[in-house]
Specification:
heterodimer; A: mainly alpha; 8 helices; B: alpha/beta; Peroxisomal Thiolase, Chain A, domain 1; 2 domains; 7-stranded mixed beta sheet; 9 helices; globular
Chain lengths: ~150, ~350
């Protein structure tokens, strides 16, 4: 072919549509904001009923995780996420969905090497690098910030 | 015996005849513009099985069974089947063939597998050793998502260049036995694809990755045979989608000075109504172009509406890990000319 890789790259860029960024930002902001507002609302309700801070810090995320798991299993979550993007992906809902969807997908390969081995296929990097960064921060805190 | 025209085109003087064809699809395919033309639509994605892989095996069995029915033959009367799919190690095809006892030549050429299968089937008939052979291919949206992308229920935003893998399977029966028997539609010429790579590395840009391979095969065919695009009723590419199709037209102009607008159609753009259905910039997968060919294009030739069609299956030869290792995506395109015989 006479067309070089560089020329073709330009042709592809010209032919490809761009993501409608403003629309994506608005959708992410609205849906992500709604999820956070719901969590905050739940916190206020629990406070009102006299629950302690420690307890609330557990109940609120667990509620979001359970609701996400149910929505994922019902096939609703992926449809919402296709529109909301980071809005559903960044809160704890994204993590829960990554775990539950992997479990569902690999159910046909059995509970050990199917569900068990693939449960953190997508969420694994968050755990690995989350733990690594926490450790690093712990070291910095111990020596310099304490 | 096949004769070579120009550099790479093989003409088949015995003109292997199309004896049967079938296309089956899933729910979304049934709701698309060609929905009414399928031999059967299966609304349940799992086909009543407990895995996407088993569902694809069933889908392919349905296509093979229906193609034999239309050809009026039994599995025992088919001497060889060329088939493939997108699942690792082509298990959908191998497992599907457990039900028939037909000798199997398993193939892999990504989404160009059906075109390769037809080419191989026609060539084996033309060689004289066989009387009746088949080609089959399948893809399944869910098994492809699982293997190449994310779990089905994982929530993410599709990129604006993404395509939808078709849940569909097709099969055809070809018969040889001399030119005198060849009424109806026959395979006239074939051209095998070369591996092309113009550096596209994003697996969400399949159309762009495959357009150079499609252009290479089409231009070699036109040059070798001295054919003007207008002499064909249709050049059907497999699954380039909107972006890949546009790039193909540009490459055909700049590389060969050919204008394909008007004669070119793309399986990926025919299978779905992309404005209405959730199909990105078009369909993809072996089943995509195979279904469009068997449900829409071949029937037009059978009815005499069209006389000559170049079917170019297009395949992106990536694996699930090659993009992670920063490999670009090589692509291939195999071409088959179907022609309606004058006396049909």
């Amino acid at each position: 072919m006479k067309t070089t890789k560089t020329q073709y790259k330009g042709m592809v860029r010209k032919a490809s549509p761009h993501s409608p960024r403003l629309q994506h930002w608005l959708a992410s902001f609205t849906v992500g904001g709604a999820i956070c507002a719901f969590a905050e609302g739940l916190r206020q309700v629990l406070l009102h009923f006299g629950r302690g801070q420690e307890e609330i810090r557990i109940i609120v995320p667990v509620t979001l995780i359970v609701l996400t798991a149910i929505c994922t299993a019902l096939g609703i979550f992926d449809k919402l996420a296709a529109k909301a993007g980071a809005g559903t992906g960044v809160p704890i809902t994204g993590f829960a969905n990554a775990v539950v969807s992997s479990a569902m997908e690999h159910r046909s390969e059995g509970f050990i090497l199917g569900v068990g081995a693939n449960l953190f296929r997508l969420a694994g990097p968050v755990l690995v690098y989350g733990s690594a960064v926490s450790t690093l921060y712990g070291i910095i805190y111990y020596f310099f910030l304490r | 015996m096949a004769t070579r025209i120009g550099g790479d085109v093989l003409a088949l003087p015995t003109r292997p005849r199309l004896a049967g064809r079938a296309a089956v699809g899933g729910k979304t395919e049934g709701e698309g513009p060609l929905g009414g033309l399928f031999d059967a639509i299966f609304p349940e994605a799992d086909m009543g099985t407990d895995s996407w892989e088993k569902a694809e095996t069933q889908l392919q069995q349905e296509a093979i069974r229906r193609a034999m029915e239309r050809a009026g033959c039994e599995p025992a009367q088919v001497q060889l089947l060329f088939g493939g799919d997108l699942i690792n190690q082509c298990t959908a095809t191998s497992f599907a063939l457990r039900a028939f006892g037909i000798p199997l030549a398993g193939l892999y050429s990504a989404c160009a597998t059906f075109a390769l299968g037809i080419g191989m089937a026609a060539l084996s008939l033309d060689g004289g050793g066989f009387e009746r052979v088949m080609a089959a291919g399948s893809s399944h949206f869910c098994s492809a998502e699982k293997q190449f992308r994310f779990p089905l229920e994982y929530g993410g935003m599709p990129t604006p260049t993404a395509q939808r893998t078709a849940t569909a399977a097709s099969a055809i029966v070809l018969e040889g036995g001399g030119a005198q028997n060849n009424r109806g539609v026959c395979v006239e010429q074939i051209i095998f694809g070369r591996v092309n790579d113009l550096g596209v590395a994003d697996p969400n840009e399949m159309g762009a990755a495959m357009a150079p391979a499609a252009a290479d095969t089409i231009l070699r065919f036109l040059r070798d045979t001295g054919t003007e695009p207008s002499a064909l009723d249709c050049i059907l590419t497999g699954d380039l989608g909107q972006i890949g199709s546009q790039l193909l037209l540009e490459l055909a102009r700049s590389e060969g000075g050919f204008e394909l607008r008007g004669v070119h159609r793309d399986g990926g753009m025919l299978l779905y109504d992309t404005a209405r259905q959730n199909a990105g910039v078009g369909g993809s997968g072996i089943g995509c172009s195979a279904a469009v060919l068997c449900a829409d294009i071949l029937p037009r030739l059978e009815r005499g509406e069209w006389k000559r069609v170049l079917y170019v299956g297009t395949g992106a030869l990536l694996s699930a890990i090659s993009p992670l290792q920063a490999e670009s995506i090589p692509a291939i395109a195999h071409g088959v000319v179907f022609a309606a015989n004058q006396d049909s």
